C-alpha cells in the first residue's frame, strides 16, 4: 500500500512521498491550492487572519462514507473533504508530470511538483492551473478548528467546531447525496478540539455523544439524538441539492455569500419542498466541568487499550506510592460502595523536569496535590454519584490544558489522573513565541497504549496508559530532550505545527512518529512497545 504525508502550508496542501530506505518524506509530489475563486467580505469577517483568510488550520484523516478521507479545516470556515483515492489519483496523474520552464539555457527542465487548484484564479504561479474539486465542501459560521468523523452501520456523521463557540453535527445520507445538520448552543469560548466518543442505533433512532474542550477551561459532553425518516424526495430539489458546490450550515451565511449562484427566492422555494429526512432533537449537554486552565485537546481512549501492569507504582510511575496502604483503602471503599471503587481513584502522574530533579511527590506535599488535581472534592463526589446512578462506560477522555495532562472518565468526567506542569524548560521567550508555550497538539496510538502531547514551542512527551486491579492512569515514559537545539532555525524561531504517525509492521506494533516544524523540517522517530 502506497502512503503519503500531507502538510498544510498557508492555503495549500503539499503531498509528499516516502523514501523506502529511510522511511522519511522524500520529495513533494503534488500541491493543492484550496483558495476559492474570490475572497468574500464574510471570509475576512469570520476569519482569525482577515488579511489572508484561507489559511489551513487543521488536517485529519479517518473513515467516512465507508472510505478513507482527508478533512481540511480552513480559517474562512470552509471544510474540505477528499476521499484519499481522489488525492492518490491526482498524484498518479500529476505527480510525475513535466512542465516546460525557461532557464538560462532556454531548455526544458523537469518540474518535480505539480500544482492543482480549486478555482481558475486561485494560483497566480501556474499559467494554466488544473482545476480539481473536493468531494465535499461545507461552509460553517466562523474559523474552523475541530473535526471528527465516523461511519457506523452504514450511517455517516461528522462533527465540527468553529469560533462561533458551538458544535455542529452533520449527517450525510448517501442515497440523498446531501448533508443534514444540527447545532448546539454556544458555550463560554472557542472550541479548539472535538471528538466523537460513542454512537448508539436503535432502529431508526440514533444517539451520538461528542466531547469537546474550550479555551475557557470547559470540558463538555454533548448528546445528539435524531431519527431517520423514510420517504421519497422531490425530484427538482433532489437534483439541485445533490449538485450544490457548497453545503451551508447557516442559512444567513448562504444568503450573504451566495457562492452557489442561485436566486434567494428560488432557493427559498426549493427549501420549502425539502424533505425532512433527519429529525433532530435539541442537543443536550449531559456533562460539564470547568478547569482553572485553558483546555486545548481532547482524545477518547477505550479501557481495552490500557496496558496491564503489576502495581500501582507502575501505573503512575511513582515509586513513593505505599502499595499496601492504597490497596487496602481501595478495598475498604469498594465494600462501602458495594461496587468497584477502582474507577473512583485519583492519583497524580509523576513527571520529570529539565533541571535533573523529580517533582515533589503529590502524596507527600499538600500544595502539589492541589496543583495536580484539576477538580475540587465536592465536584468529585458529585461525579461519583452521577456515575453510580447513570452507570459508566469503558471510555476515557485524555485532555491537555495549557500546562497539564489529565484523564477523565466518560461521560461523568471524574478525573482519575493528572500531572502537574509537564514542561518547565526555559526556551528563549519573545513576542514571537508567547502563544506557543501551551500543550495544543496531542494524539493517541491505541495499539501502543500511548498518549503523545506537544507544545508548539518544541516540547514533546509520551505518556503510557496503564491499568492495575481496576485502577487506570498514565505514566511519563519519554520526554524529547532536543527542544532547545531545535528551537532556532535558519529563518528564526522554529515551532512544531503537527504530529503524524505511520504504522510500519503488521505483526508487532511499530510506528513512525513524524514531527513537522514551521520551516519545513520533518524529523522521524520510531516508537514501539
Overall residue-averaged pLDDT value: 86
Unreliable residue stretches: 98-112, 123-128, 357-370
Strand order of the largest sheet: 1-2-3-7-8
Helix content: 10-25%
Estimated radius of gyration: 25 Å
Number of strands: 34
Could you say which structural class the secondary elements and strand pairing correspond to?
alpha+beta
CA-based shape: globular
Largest sheet: 5 strands, mixed
State the helix count.
Answer: 10
Query: What portion of residues belong to β-strands?
Result: 35-45%
Give the end-to-end Cα distance, rounded to a whole number of Å: 24 Å
Polypeptide structure, described:
InterPro entries: Crt10, WD40_repeat_dom_sf. There is one protein chain. This protein has 529 residues and is an alpha+beta fold. Among the domains are: 1-135, no CATH class; 305-398 and 420-528, no CATH class. The protein is 16% helix and 40% strand. It contains 10 helices and 34 strands. It has a 5-stranded mixed beta sheet, covered by helices on one side. Strands 4-5-6-9-17 form a 5-stranded mixed beta sheet. Strands 14, 15, 16, 18 and 19 form a 5-stranded antiparallel beta sheet that branches. A hairpin with a 2-residue loop joins β1 (5-9) and β2. The radius of gyration is 25 Å and the shape is globular. The model is unreliable at 98-112, 123-128 and 357-370 (pLDDT under 50).
Amino acid at each position: 500500500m502506497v502512503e503519503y504525508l500531507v502538510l498544510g502550508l498557508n492555503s495549500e496542501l503539499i503531498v509528499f512521498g516516502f523514501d523506502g530506505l529511510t522511511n522519511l518524506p522524500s520529495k513533494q509530489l503534488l500541491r493543492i491550492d484550496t483558495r476559492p475563486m474570490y475572497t468574500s467580505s464574510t471570509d475576512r469577517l469570520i476569519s482569525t487572519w482577515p488579511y489572508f483568510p484561507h489559511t489551513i488550520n487543521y488536517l485529519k484523516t479517518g473513515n467516512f462514507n465507508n472510505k478513507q478521507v482527508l478533512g481540511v479545516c480552513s480559517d474562512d470556515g470552509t471544510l474540505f473533504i477528499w476521499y484519499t483515492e481522489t488525492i492518490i489519483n491526482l498524484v498518479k496523474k500529476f505527480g510525475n508530470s513535466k512542465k516546460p520552464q525557461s532557464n538560462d539555457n532556454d531548455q526544458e527542465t523537469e518540474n518535480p511538483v505539480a500544482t492543482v487548484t480549486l478555482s481558475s484564479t486561485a494560483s497566480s504561479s501556474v499559467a494554466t492551473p488544473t482545476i480539481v474539486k473536493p468531494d465535499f465542501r461545507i461552509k460553517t459560521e466562523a474559523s474552523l478548528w475541530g473535526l471528527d468523523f465516523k461511519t457506523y452501520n452504514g450511517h455517516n456523521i461528522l462533527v465540527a467546531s468553529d469560533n462561533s463557540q458551538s458544535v455542529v453535527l452533520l449527517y450525510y445520507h448517501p442515497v440523498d447525496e446531501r448533508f443534514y445538520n444540527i447545532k448546539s448552543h454556544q458555550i463560554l469560548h472557542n472550541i479548539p478540539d472535538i471528538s466523537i466518543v460513542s454512537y448508539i442505533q436503535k432502529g431508526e433512532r440514533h444517539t451520538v455523544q461528542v466531547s469537546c474542550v474550550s479555551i475557557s477551561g470547559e470540558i463538555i459532553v454533548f448528546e445528539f439524538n435524531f431519527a431517520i425518516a423514510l420517504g421519497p424526495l422531490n425530484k427538482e430539489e433532489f437534483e439541485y441539492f445533490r449538485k450544490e458546490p457548497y453545503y451551508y450550515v447557516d442559512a444567513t451565511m448562504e444568503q450573504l455569500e451566495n457562492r452557489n449562484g442561485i436566486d434567494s427566492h428560488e432557493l427559498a422555494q426549493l427549501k420549502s419542498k425539502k424533505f425532512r429526512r433527519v429529525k433532530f432533537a435539541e442537543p443536550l449537554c449531559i456533562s460539564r466541568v470547568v478547569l482553572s486552565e485553558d483546555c486545548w485537546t481532547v482524545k477518547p481512549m477505550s479501557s481495552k487499550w490500557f496496558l496491564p501492569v503489576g502495581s500501582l507504582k507502575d501505573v503512575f510511575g511513582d515509586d513513593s506510592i505505599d502499595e499496601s496502604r492504597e490497596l487496602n483503602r481501595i478495598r475498604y471503599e469498594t465494600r462501602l460502595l458495594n461496587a468497584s471503587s477502582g474507577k473512583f481513584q485519583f492519583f497524580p502522574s509523576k513527571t520529570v523536569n529539565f533541571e535533573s530533579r523529580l517533582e515533589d511527590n503529590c502524596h507527600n506535599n499538600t500544595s502539589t496535590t492541589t496543583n495536580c488535581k484539576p477538580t475540587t472534592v465536592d465536584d468529585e463526589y458529585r461525579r461519583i454519584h452521577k456515575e453510580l446512578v447513570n452507570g459508566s462506560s469503558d471510555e476515557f477522555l485524555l485532555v491537555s490544558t495549557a500546562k497539564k495532562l489529565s484523564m477523565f472518565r466518560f461521560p461523568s468526567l471524574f478525573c482519575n489522573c493528572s500531572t502537574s506542569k509537564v514542561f518547565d524548560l526555559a526556551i528563549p521567550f519573545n513576542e514571537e513565541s508567547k502563544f506557543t508555550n501551551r500543550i495544543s497538539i496531542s494524539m493517541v496510538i491505541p495499539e501502543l497504549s500511548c498518549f503523545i502531547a506537544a507544545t508548539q514551542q518544541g516540547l514533546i512527551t509520551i505518556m503510557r496508559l496503564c491499568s492495575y486491579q481496576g485502577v487506570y492512569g498514565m505514566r511519563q515514559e519519554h520526554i524529547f530532550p532536543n527542544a532547545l537545539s531545535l528551537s532556532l532555525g535558519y529563518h528564526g524561531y522554529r515551532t512544531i505545527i503537527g504530529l503524524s504517525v505511520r504504522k510500519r509492521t503488521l505483526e508487532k506494533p511499530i510506528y513512525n512518529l513524524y514531527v513537522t516544524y514551521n520551516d519545513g523540517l520533518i524529523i522521524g522517530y520510531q516508537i514501539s512497545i
